[in-house]
Design a protein that fits this description.
CATH topology: UDP-N-acetylmuramoyl-L-alanine:D-glutamate ligase
Strand order of the largest sheet: 5-4-1-8-9-10-11-12-13
Number of helices: 11
Order of helices and strands: EEHEHEHEEEEHEHEHHEEEHHHH
CATH architecture: 3-Layer(aba) Sandwich
Distance between the termini: 15 Å
Structural class: alpha/beta
Strand content: 15-25%
Number of domains: 1
Bound molecules: adenosine-5'-triphosphate, magnesium ion
Oligomer: single chain
Helix content: 25-40%
Radius of gyration: 19 Å
Number of strands: 13
Length: 318
């Protein structure tokens, strides 16, 4: 199935501070000028579009990313291509850096983060109308606000099914833009915190929100699993327990990749949600959102062991 993945492409700088931010911030109440000496830093590939596409490629699909990156993107592009991702609609912008995410965590798990938009600010110039061919499905994940406004409209114009995934952008988007994006979306997916924020901002209640989307509303709840409302029903789905809890960065993106894999195979909703949950568990077991690896065979085997059913295996053999 042809899937176009839109969202951010970023390089993440993840640092650990061996102290407590609060000790410094409280001592500098009037004027803030702080520098934290960190003793550990990892530079990893990230960004919502790249994370989703990477897991989708592991699951045997060939997703096409439509996004913008900087002139420093050559190595990252080679990695994605080698992983099975189609980067032909991923545009490098000369003279700017790829979006960068700087996050420091202290010993109390408090975080201070900065996101530099860089080349992502140009994503609103890209258009679904310019793609060589029309995909069946698209996912619209956190990105430049102009892009998040433009893409849902274009998908509706072109008859492309889309998953609306506004995530952390809900906080900064206008109610009108959010309503426009979710109206006519096939699927709306958010985590529980974002779901409450979305209801507050748009003024819609559960029932009205469910009626806005064409196929399904999905709410993920971290270690408590996920809920899918579709076909007039509700499914509460469990997590797949990770073998080790190393780093949760990118779990949400992996869940979306698993969901898309299920849609590509035309599987029932609860199966789509379970594939998402297992794809997420693999991410937790490794540091960074694209450090995990599995073959499709391994994934299918672990799916059967975890959930005790064969719907996924049978669909792969059909
Ligand atoms: N600790 C966990 N153990 C097992 N599975 C988990 C855990 N945390 C998340 N998951 C799986 O990942 C899915 C998405 O997680 P979550 O609701 O935390 O997404 P998110 O808040 O969007 O994450 P992100 O930080 O990537 O934005 C969950 O529904 C669950 O299946
Ligand atoms: Mg998320």
């Amino acid at each position: 199935m042809e899937i176009v993945v839109t969202g951010s492409i970023a390089v993440d700088y993840i640092m650990s501070f061996p102290g407590r931010f609060r000790d410094y911030i409280l001592a500098n109440e009037d004027k803030i000028s702080l520098s934290f000496l960190v003793d550990e830093m990892h530079r990893v590939r990230g960004g919502t579009a790249a994370n989703i596409a990477y897991s989708l490629a592991l699951l045997g699909e060939r997703p096409r990313i439509m996004a913008t990156a900087g002139e420093d993107f050559a190595d990252y592009r080679r990695f994605l291509e080698a992983s099975g991702v189609d980067t032909s609609a991923l545009k490098s912008i000369d003279g700017v850096y790829t979006a960068s995410f700087f996050v420091s965590t202290d010993i109390e798990q408090n975080q201070i983060a900065t996101f530099y938009a860089g080349a992502m600010a140009y994503a609103g110039d890209l258009s679904f109308h310019d793609l060589a061919d029309r995909p069946e499905w698209a996912i619209i994940s956190p990105n430049d606000p102009r892009a998040m406004l433009r893409y849902p409209r274009e998908c509706r114009e072109l008859g492309i099914h889309y998953i609306y995934d506004p995530s952390q952008q809900i906080a900064r988007m206008e109610a009108e833009a959010l309503l426009d994006g979710l109206h006519g979306a096939d699927i709306l997916i958010v985590n529980d915190y974002e779901y409450e924020l979305l209801k507050k901002k748009t003024g819609l209640d559960d029932e009205t929100l469910r009626a806005e989307v064409r196929q399904a509303l999905i709410v993920t709840r971290g270690p408590d699993g996920s809920t899918i409302w579709a076909e007039g029903r509700r499914w509460d789905l469990p997590v797949a327990v990770p073998k080790a809890e190393v780093d949760p960065t990118g779990v949400g993106d992996a869940y979306r990749a698993g969901l898309l894999k299920g849609l590509a195979l035309g599987l029932p909703w609860p199966v789509c949600g379970r594939i998402g949950a297992l794809a997420a568990a693999y991410v937790i077991e490794k540091p960074g959102p694209q450090s995990h690896h599995y073959t499709l065979d391994e994934f299918v085997r672990r799916y059967r062991e975890t959930f005790g059913e064969d719907a996924f295996t049978e669909a792969m053999q059909a």
